[in-house]
């Protein structure tokens, strides 16, 4: 496949929220967890991780989902489209891939929480986990593998 070169743009359903990403993505993920199924009204969520300092977002947002001090989900205030999440104290943001104008180019490289997976629901992910990668080092290794995968055209 191969991904386009940055910057990338995207918007919510109504267009009131617009995003711009000036860096290449760090990782693409499909999450099958039961929370994501409910949050997205679908079989799994699609995330494209970006460095926080490459992310610009304009338009009014509200928080929703099951949020806490360390987990915030942001939605367009007008159309309530799920835009992105911030999880923990990291320098990354988790953009919902469907917000991107070229969402089809960001196919999931990693698949997590397969233990909650709907029986029929499958993705073309290269790496698959019943739960989550267990350490920051493992996540880092997946991000490097994703970067090489993108460079070689997937
Ligand atoms: Zn909207
Ligand atoms: Zn999930």
In helices, the fraction of residues equals: 10-25%
Query: What's the CATH C level?
Result: Alpha Beta
Which ions and ligands are bound to the chains? zinc ion
Taking pLDDT < 50 over at least 5 consecutive residues as the criterion, the unreliable ranges are none
Question: How would you sum up this structure, described in words?
Answer:
With 154 residues, the chain is α+β, with helices and mostly antiparallel strands. It has one domain (8-129): glutathione-dependent formaldehyde- activating enzyme (gfa) (Alpha-Beta Complex), CATH 3.90.1590. Helices cover 15% and strands 35% of the residues. The chain contains two helices and eleven strands, in the order E-E-E-H-E-E-E-E-E-E-E-E-H. The protein has helices at 34-40, 136-151, and strands at residues 8-11, 18-21, 27-31, 45-51, 55-58, 61-68, 71-76, 82-87, 92-96, 110-112, 127-128. Strands 6-7-8-9-4-3-10-11 form an eight-stranded mixed β-sheet. The longest helix is centred in the last third of the chain and has 16 residues, at 136-151. It is globular, with a radius of gyration of 15 Å. The model has no long low-confidence stretch (mean pLDDT 94). Residues 31, 33, 35-36, 45, 113 line the site of one zinc ion.
Key phrases:
eight-stranded mixed beta sheet; binds zinc ion; 11 strands; globular; alpha+beta; 2 helices; 154 residues; glutathione-dependent formaldehyde- activating enzyme (gfa); single chain; three-stranded antiparallel beta sheet
């Amino acid at each position: 496949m191969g991904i386009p070169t940055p910057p990338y743009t995207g918007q919510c359903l109504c267009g009131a929220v617009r995003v711009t990403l000036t860096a290449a993505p760090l990782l693409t993920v499909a999450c099958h967890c039961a929370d994501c199924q409910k949050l997205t009204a679908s079989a799994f969520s699609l995330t494209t991780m970006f460095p926080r300092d490459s992310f610009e977002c304009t338009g009014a947002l509200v928080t929703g989902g099951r949020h806490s001090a360390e987990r915030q989900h942001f939605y367009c205030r007008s159309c309530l489209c799920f835009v992105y999440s911030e999880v923990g104290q990291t320098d990354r943001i988790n953009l919902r891939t469907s917000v991107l104008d070229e969402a089809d180019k960001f196919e999931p490289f990693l698949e997590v929480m397969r233990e909650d997976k709907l029986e029929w629901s499958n993705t073309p992910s290269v790496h698959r986990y019943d739960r989550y990668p267990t350490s920051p080092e493992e996540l880092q290794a997946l991000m490097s593998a994703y970067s090489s995968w993108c460079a070689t055209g997937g």
